Amino acid sequence: QVQLVESGGGLVQAGESLRLSCAASGVIFSIATMGWYRQAPGKQRELVATITRGGNTNYAEFVKGRFTISRVNAKATVYLQMNSLKPEDTAVYYCWSSANAWGQGTQVTVSA
Question: What are phi and psi of 73, to 5 degrees?
Answer without folding.
Answer: -60, -35
